[in-house]
Specification:
This protein has 64 residues and is mainly α. Helices cover 67% and strands 0% of the residues. The protein has one domain. α1 packs across α3 and α3 packs antiparallel against α4. The longest helix is centred in the N-terminal third of the chain and has 14 residues. The protein starts with a helix and ends in an 8-residue tail after the last helix.
């Protein structure tokens, strides 16, 4: 399984368990994922999940 698939799978599972985008992002940053990889992961995960896509915009906070 590629890293992007692992990341997408993690994001979807964490979201399904009720974790917030901020918490998912924080956990991924602590485990070595870069901000860019995380953003791409949310973008990939959101293609099939409207809820994640809605919160993907939340990640824009980190740009400021």
């Amino acid at each position: 399984m590629t890293n992007h698939k692992k990341l997408k799978k993690y994001i979807r599972r964490a979201h399904k368990k009720g974790f917030s985008v901020a918490k998912i992002t924080q956990t991924l940053l602590k485990t070595g994922w870069t901000q860019d990889q995380i953003k791409k992961g949310f973008k990939i995960a959101s293609k099939r999940n409207i809820f994640v896509r809605f919160f993907y915009s939340f990640l824009n906070i980190f740009k400021r």
